[in-house]
Amino acid sequence: MQHLKPLHKDAIPKALTRAKHYRLLNEPWQAESICRDILSVDPNNQAALLNLVLAKTDQFGTTKSNTYSEAKRACAKLKDEYERFYYRGIIEERRGKEALNRNTHRVKYIAYEHYRTAMEYFEKAEKIHPPGNEDAILRYNACSRRIKEFNLRSAPDEGHIQPFLDV
Q1: Separation between Cα atoms, residue 136 and residue 125, nearest integer Å
Q2: What is the pLDDT of residues 7-60, one digit of tens each?
Q3: Side-chain half-sphere of 32: how many Cα atoms within 13 Å?
C-alpha cells in the first residue's frame, strides 16, 4: 500500500470547499477522503467532522462498510452540544430513509424506530437551539410526515430493538 501524503494546514479551507463540492456532485466517498485528510492534520476540525458525518450518511445503503457507526463516532467528536444532537438526528433520519429502501418484511418497523430516534434527538436540539435557528423543528416535522406517509409504526412484538440514544 502506498503511504498517504499529508495535507498542509494552510490548504484546509480550500479542501473543505472541495469536500462540500464533492458532496454536491454526489461523490460522498471523495468528500469523505478529503475530510479524513483534513482530520489527519487537524483532528478537531469541526467543519471537517460535520462534512464527514454528512458524507458518511450520503453513503447509507450504497456501501458494505459500516458508515452508520463511523458517522456516529464522528458526530460524538463535535464540541457543540446542539450540533451533536442535531446531527445525530440527521444520522437517524437518513438511516430511516435508507431502511425504507430495503426489501425486507420488517422494514417499516425498522424505519419507524430510526425516525422516532431522530425525532428524540431533534427535540433535544430544539431545546438548546441557537436564536433564529429552527432547523431541528423542520427536521422533526419532516420525520413526522414520513412516519405518516409510509404508515410506519413500532413492531407489534416486544422483542424488537430500538436504536440506542448515545449522545
Answers
A1: 6
A2: 999 999 999 999 999 999 999 999 999 999 999 999 999 999 999 999 999 999
A3: 17
